[in-house]
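Quick illustration for those who missed Monday's session on complexes.
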Amino acid sequence: MNLKNIYLDYNATTPLDPAVLEAMLPWLREDFGNPSSQHSSGQRAAAAVDLARLQVARLIDANPDEIIFTGGATEANNTVIRNAGGMIVAGGTEHSSIYEPARDAGAVFLPVTAGGQLIPATLGEALRKHSPALVSLILANNETGVITNLEGVAEVVHAAGALLHLDAVQAAGKIPLSVKALKADFLSLSAHKFYGPKGVGALFVRRGIRLAPLLSGGGQEMNRRSGTHNVPAIVGMGVACRLAAARMDEDPAHALILRQRLETNILDAVPRCSVNGAGEARLPNTLNIRFAGIDAGALAARLNLEGIEVSVGSACSSGRSSGSRILEAMGLSTLDAMSAIRFSLGRGIDAAMIDHTVERLAEMVEVLRAAARTANVLDLETD
Ligand code: PMP
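Prediction with 4'-deoxy-4'-aminopyridoxal-5'-phosphate bound:
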């Protein structure tokens, strides 16, 4: 066990599974063919891409011809938003790869509850008022882990004549996914969130739905995404999907036990902290917690000095001095939003790492709060 580096940021990205790497290596070494070529080198690569397409389809209960490989979920999300062809209604806690293009397209964003949950009545109202062509919702939030309650959602979206897109990037490999049960028309995935390589993703597009490509050119992916296939990455994504499906009992159970240990022990050891998204269904691996009076950036920096790697807000938006857009949408003040830390767990974490983290964290919070009190007293004295 290596207590020198405790990586608790699996929602930002995950390490490559060794079996994924092994499967990718031949396609980086000797098997370099282009799947669009008609000769044997090309057709071997085409067969490998086809197998990967089947493996991705199986993870989400889709048909292989409904899967388009992309250069990640940012591309998949942008493709759907730019394809909308009408008004867009989006969730209130979307990832920036939905939020930014949707905002630019004049989308209406739905409010969420204090727990970060969709409010069905406001969706119904938005459908009536705006007659959107597309509704886009995050299936599980990357910052809080809150799982959107989609019961009845596809039905009302379809009844209003709109299509439903789900950003399932954080859900994949953590909760079972079926596009049939979800009745989704589009669904986005990203391999690096479930032990696959970075820079490869997939977009599910239900059979019969028209999709205007974001990238046109050579006509790959049934004219829906041009560009030479990234064969090693696609092969890696396929294997990562196969492993995620095979480990659908083991991985979430392992994460949940450790997440509960982390959550319970922090709440016990550290006064004045609260869980964001408490009371909602959450991903088994994610804990977003705020520490009253603490600057999360300062706390994360101290943890990092001791080799404990966590996230403040989401990795994609870190470096900004404002609080998280997601937490503020849940009604938190900027100051409260800036006191939140996200812990996200995965396959490499064990109980000793969790216990060590809680121990160090409790001490650091106490030190930071004591320092803040001293600073306040000094401020008073100089007044
Ligand atoms: N959606 C969500 C919910 C995410 O967490 C991420 C990754 N942070 C993305 C989309 C973008 O995925 P990618 O890194 O493949 O562009």
